Every structure is written in structure tokens, then in C-alpha cells.
Amino acid sequence: GIMEGGHGSCRVLPAPGRGARCHPRAGAAPGARFVPVPAEASQEIFRIASMAPGALLLEAQKEYEKESQKADEYLREIREQQLLPEAVGQCIEAAGYEHEPDTQKSLLRAASFGKCFLDKFPPEGFVRMCQDLRVLNAIRDYQIGIPLTFTQYKQLTIEVLLDRLVLRRLYPLAIRICEFLRLPEMQGVSRILAHWACYKVQQKDKSDEEVAQAINQKLGDTAGISYSDIATRAYDCGRAELAIQLLEYEPRSGEQVPLLLKMKRSKLALGKAIESGDTDLGEGTGEPWGDFGLWGSLLGSCPPDPKNVPKFPQFCRHQERETLKDLYNQDDNHQELGNLHVLGGY
């Protein structure tokens, strides 16, 4: 039995010696072979004794490489019929549906040869096809094993293909594809690296220090990477100390606070909140700053962080006025204490 689809789809042929047919939704029977259905452009070009414009252009290019005058004869025949743009388009289209790289190259060389004799042929289609075939040939490699047809690749979209590579943990290939296609970092490399880092924190055979260092060396200051998200994943995997180490790489202090609160690291959380200068960080966390007991721990029995002390009054002015009064009383700062009482009267 044979199943046929549209251009670029597959026929399912039973293996030799088997008579059963496969239901299209049930998948192929054991031993079935998938044979791509040639696209119309490929059929036109490679048909025996074909006089299609693409076939003539392919022959012209081959004869040109042999330095034969027949190249001029084939080319003149195409141009006399004003079919050169169609011939170039046929060769480009057919290249997409060929699985053999040598055949792809032959067709693209013919298209490039034909373009030289056209004044205004848009190059975008040719460039895009070259890019698509580079990607397709990479994923069709036996070591990767994703034998998509050109039609399937286009319907799947590059984003979904990258997701499939990530699920297979083929991070290097996914990153190379992103760089080759020049995808925006948020859509491409940054997203892949974030997935890689979240996978890395799950590896139990490495110490917290080794994992944190490896992630930082790989990610650096890559745009769009949130170390706090990676740290959250580490904490969810039961690696609290690794999470804290990863948070140290997060350049935005305010982004560190929610996870520190979740981890019950109140002193660190308030220190980062003061450092960020964002007075709204306590909102929505379910952890009122005044209940932390941090006033004593930060500025009492424990030595305060010198860089945070000057910012603390400004922070408390918005969040905890009573704590600020205690601060001024302890420092005998009567002038600021008086100013605070005056402001409170309005």
C-alpha cells in the first residue's frame, strides 16, 4: 500500500515481504520505509528529456562548468522564451525538496548562474533557501536524527524546532542555528542558554561552586538572562546554597529579593532591597518588612553593611517610620527625629 500527500510529503511503503498497509494516523508499521514525494519543480527538472526552464538552466550551468559552448545554447533558448526568472525560481524551489546535499548544491549553483543574467531578481528567496537548507541538513544528520521535509520544517516554524532541540538537550546545535539565522537574543541564544542553565542546576554530580561557576562562565552578562529565574529553579531542586550563589550574579538587586524571601533569608532580602533603593519590593510578598526583626540584626547586634546604612533611612521613610524613629533615637540624631515628627503631622 502507498500513501501520498502533497508536495514534499511522504509515501509510506511496506517493507519487503509485508503486505499490510499503515493507517496514516497509526504511524508506520515496523520496517516501513518513508520515501519523500518529489515536489512539482523537482519532477519538472529531473523528468527524462525535460524541456522545463529549470532543467535547461541546470544543463546550461553544467555545460558552463565544462567550458562548453552548449551552455550558451541552453541559456539562449531560455532567454528567447523569456523564461529565465521562472527557471531560476524552479531551481531554487526544487533545491528545498531534495535531501541529497550534492543535488541541492547543483540546483542552487544553477539558480545563482541564472541570476547573473537577470537585472532585477530579488535575492531574498535564494538567500532564505540557502539558510533553510543549512538548518535542514544539520538536523537531518544521523547523529541528530530529525528527518524533516522542507514543508514540515516551514509548518513547524524555527521556534518549535529550537524547542525540540532543547528537549533533546542539543544545546550547542540550537545555539549555532540561532547565531546562523541571526535570531534576536531573547528569542534565540538567550532563551537556549537559560534552558541549559536550568538543566545544569539539576546535575547532582557537581558541587554548588562548580555549577555556579560553569553557569556564570557560559552566560556572563548575556542580554535577557535572569539569574534569579535560574536560582529559583535551583532552589526548587533542593539546592538552596547554589541558588544563593547564583543570585550573586544577578546584577539587579531587586530581582534577588523575592526568592530570598521565599527562602526565609530575611536579612539578605532586606539588604538587597535597601541596596536596590526600591521601596515597593516588600509589596505582594506576604512578608511585612517590620516583622523581619532585621532592624536589630542589621543595625544592632550584627555589624551593618556600610554601603547600605546611608540608604536605610530613605527606605524606612517609605516603609517603616517607627523603625526610622528608632534609628534616629539610637544615633541621638535629634534634628532628623524632629523633622520626622513634623512631617508626620501633615
UniProtKB/TrEMBL annotation:
Question: Which portions of this protein are annotated as coiled-coil regions?
Answer: 57-84
Molecular function, one GO term: actin binding
Domain annotation Vps16 C-terminal: ranges: 225-343
Query: Sorted alphabetically, which keywords does the UniProt record give?
Result: Coiled coil
Give the CC-aspect GO terms: endosome; HOPS complex; lysosomal membrane
Location of the Vps16 N-terminal domain: 40-128
The transmembrane segments are: none
Alphabetical GO biological process terms: endosomal transport; intracellular protein transport; vacuole fusion, non-autophagic
Classify the source by domain of life.
Answer: Eukaryota
Q: Which family does it belong to?
A: Belongs to the VPS16 family.
Its protein name is: Vacuolar protein sorting-associated protein 16 homolog
List the source organism: Urocynchramus pylzowi
The lineage is: Eukaryota, Metazoa, Chordata, Craniata, Vertebrata
The encoding gene = Vps16
